[in-house]
Amino acid sequence: MTPPSHSPAASTSGLRDDEQPASAERTAVPGHSPARPPAAAPGGIQGEPAPPPPAKHRDAFFDNAKYLAIVLVALGHAWEPLYAGSRSAAALYIFVYAFHMPAFTVISGYFSRSFEMRRNQLQRLVTGVAVPYIVFQTAYAAFRYWAGDLPDFSVDLTDPWFLTWFLVALFLWRLTAPLWRIVRWPVPLALAIALAASVSPDLGSGLDLQRVLQFLPFFVLGMCLKPEHFRLVRRRAARIAAVPVLVAALAFAYWAVPRMNDAWFYHTDSAQHLGVPWWCGILMQLAMFGCSLVLTACFLAWVPGRRTWCTVLGAGTLYGYLLHGFLAKASRWWDWYDADWIHTPWGALAVTLLAGVIVTLLCTPPVQRALRFVMEPKMTWAFRKEPSPPPGAPQGRTA
Asked: Is the pTM above the cut of 0.90?
């Protein structure tokens, strides 16, 4: 669960910074055109070397949002074993599940707006998404076999396990990005596809397509968003309005715990598999889509826009996302929750704090440096060299 969170020019995962549109970083003075320097002769103006292009900078808001969302993912997994014995824990669990992955997916779509199947983009898609998927799908299989959860060691790349589904989803969503820019009504079309998937029990489990398609509208919506939309939800009025909405949503979650099947929040099953008529599944999907969007907006409204102590951790959300899965599963297999004190209010608070601390540590720069060789490998050996342009051909793209 998800998506993003590294340099916009060097990363491809939705849990990391992606192809950040240049339009998100530039502003123009009304009534004026940006000044253009005179054309430089080879070697630079008057013999001086041409100045380097301006360095891209990270947006602290999105780094903060990704870090806070990954903390919510970890908290949700930490609360899951408390679900059956505590209505309050169950309410928090479904409240968080209503928006944490939709928020990740919207941000992933936003940073995919410039994906155009260019050579460098496809290479980063392979090294930043496909390779981590293969590595962690294999690592999880080995871990399951070692822990006794698998009778025989085997790796099935067509069947994402636990957290790796988001990498498959991101890979497939990103490949469809050019399509969503040319259709007239991208979000309604993506929503129609999600609704069709939700009432298709024969879709199968290969590549976790149910979840890939049911989360698709959030990705497409993110592609359609512009910087001003995020500025709108960060206004003071929106921040104030978000408080009663979040409180009401949490109260509704508490009420719904004994009355609602929490499987709706996972988006992994068709309506028929959940035991309801197909038309009920369509209504639920529409309701869940609307609810998730509102809560995502409320969540983003309270994300700090300035640099904070956690901003640097936003670059490591993919690390925290994939690595904390080992501890989440180990805690179930090795009965870490069997102690009676954990099922007290103070125990639940301790579990919450511990989960937040662990996932925070897993997002830190030392962990990123240690594992970058598998999470962001360069793999220059795997790609053909780009042919040199013929003499006189234009160099690069123009804005």
From this structure: no
Contact residues for 154 (Cβ-Cβ < 8 A; gap 6+): 141
Q: Compute how many other C-beta atoms are within 10 angstroms of the C-beta atom of residue 203.
A: 16
CA separation for the pair 22, 332 (Å, rounded): 44
Burial label for 219, CB within 10 Å (0-12, 13-18, 19+), is buried
Please provide the size of the chain in residues.
Answer: 399
Whose CA is closest to 159, among 207, 231, 113? 207
**In the chain, how long is the greatest CA-to-CA distance?**
77
Nearest to 167 by CA among 318, 63, 324: 318
d(CA 2, CA 99): 11
| Residue 195 CB partners (closer than 8 Å, separation 6+) | 282, 285, 286
Q: Which amino acid is at 337?
A: Y
Collapsed DSSP state (helix, strand, coil) of residue 62: helix
User: Comparing 45-49, 110-114, 190-194, 381-385, which segment has the lowest mean pLDDT?
Assistant: 45-49
| Phi, psi angle pair for 301, to nearest 5° | -60, -30
The one-letter amino acid at 209: L
Q: How confident is the model at residue 15 (pLDDT cuts 50, 70, 90)?
A: low
Burial class (CB in 10 A: 0-12, 13-18, 19+), 47: exposed
- Write the burial class of residue 174 (CB in 10 Å: 0-12 exposed, 13-18 middle, 19+ buried): buried
Q: Give the pLDDT confidence score for residue 36 in this predicted structure.
A: 42
Other beta carbons within 10 angstroms of residue 171's beta carbon come to: 20
Contact 135, 141 (CB under 8 A): no
Long-range contacts from 250-253, C-beta under 8 angstroms, 24+ separation: 250/91, 250/92, 250/95, 253/91, 253/92, 253/94, 253/95, 253/98
Closest CA to 176 of 164, 163, 185, 186: 186
Q: Where are the domains of the chain?
A: 58-377
Query: How many Cα atoms are found within 13 Å in the side-chain-facing hemisphere of 366?
Result: 3
Structural contact between residues 373 and 85, judged by C-beta atoms closer than 8 angstroms = no
Output the six-digit token pair for 249.
């949503």
